[in-house]
């Protein structure tokens, strides 16, 4: 029963990721209505620059929203803060519904982007604070799956509904997201930080479906209190080469043995980059996220429409888009089901190897034209599945697991800012890659990053399946030694 409560909170705080998918895909079937010379939706058709900004402004808004999320959820809590983070979606669709001005719609897109950036950081933080170790990987995979579901739903809406009804469905989903967040119980970690210990104990009892006075609840409360005790600065000692690695590890982990003069309160930023385990966790998650972007999913999505139109001209672009999104969603669901069964390392390594093989084959087929175009189109769907099954999802699971509470918000915000910048970079560089390397050469480059991701999984990534936060920090240190 306790796991049911955790699933409920996970679905509720992940539902805004569905709103992100809806918002990002919307221009793909709306832009033509705005740029048409006889458009009745706007007072004047959108110019080239305005039509370009329609798709890109949410990314700029997302960078701004990522900066705000840490302060908002620390100030207002995970429940009320989550409701505030969803409001940009509501405001964005209301402005678009009542506007006939291109400028107003572009402003609305930027506002919606603020919500996108913030909720993608918010949900992993909330999930990490309520999930049990046995199902944490599954729950941490839910935000990516709901994002893919939002993409799928948006393509279907663009296929079957008219412009105004699509806006109303998006607005209704945004309001539903606020309502869902209202039903969740506040995070016990946040409550303890606010010195509301009794409420924290009741929250733990809720999420574990145990009596507030039970041994399980009291032990969890004690563990969380120790976990969120203000971190202390560790002065690394110069050890002789013959000191055992286990002793060095204990020296880093056990702060109680240091004298009071060595202990001093530290800022989250300082903890993140001076604590060996936090620093190493940040490096590993950053590597997996960066390599994920550089494996070219965004760029391949841009080129996929052209390949689909060449390979299957008899099928509508709407149908192909729905199939593309369906494969992404299926891959994310498989990852959700497999994360706590097979572990993070297995998913990342097998996914990266499969993606590398698919990209090499796609490049070879496009370079030599030895197969019919529909084979390449089918291979793109296979590539999307394997990407979402591991490499596209595992980094976000790791972002949920690899940080202590003191640095979780800061680390997540910094990592997501980097992801937004890297996505912007790869989309901007892709046309030049095609110009100088050809589309087949670009796929070969992306395959190199998939191979690098495999090496990270093999040699740097510790297995985090089923481990507590403290055990994960120890595993990060052991991997270092």
Automatic annotation (TrEMBL):
Residues annotated as transmembrane: 7-26, 53-73, 80-96, 102-127, 139-161, 167-192, 282-304, 316-339, 346-368, 374-398, 418-437, 443-461
Primary residence: membrane
A Pfam family recorded for this sequence: Sugar_tr
Domain Major facilitator superfamily (MFS) profile: 9-465
Its membrane topology: Multi-pass membrane protein
Annotated keywords: Membrane, Transmembrane, Transmembrane helix
InterPro entries in alphabetical order: MFS_dom (IPR020846), MFS_sugar_transport-like (IPR005828), MFS_trans_sf (IPR036259), MFS_Trehalose_Transporter (IPR050549), Sugar_transporter_CS (IPR005829)
Cellular location(s): Membrane
Name of the protein described by the UniProt record: Major facilitator superfamily (MFS) profile domain-containing protein
Biological source species: Iphiclides podalirius
